Hints:
Blueprint: E1 14-15, E2 20-24, E3 27-34, E4 39-41, H1 46-63, H2 70-83, H3 85-105, H4 107-111, H5 118-122
Parallel strand pairs: 1-3
Antiparallel strand pairs: 2-3, 3-4
Amino acid sequence: MSGAIGVLKDAPMCWLGMDESASVSGFTLKAFSNPALNTMTIEISSDASKAAIASIQRYFSENMDEEIGNLAAGALLGFFLKEIAPIAYNQGVADAQARLQARVAELDVEVYEDEFQYWLKQGRPGKRRG
């Protein structure tokens, strides 16, 4: 069943397209897109998949007053990874981009150094020749 939803066996990361990555909730998200299809594939580790499926089953049991099987929960997880997860990924990229842009905008203030400070730091102005 885990192959049906694209889970990597024993992978330590959650795979999301090209060379972008971000750390989210203790595991790394990587995005891989297929330029020919203009699609993004998101995969999670086997352990994360098992935990997510168990969580979906528990949610249905406690909030929907019905049980959901392992296969159905896995299919629902696959749907969420394909349809919903890119929203969170894109928002994370936008948040990181905004934060980096703010830091770059402050760079000149943080690293600015006054020019021609040698004589002022020595406590005396230069000698006048006349």
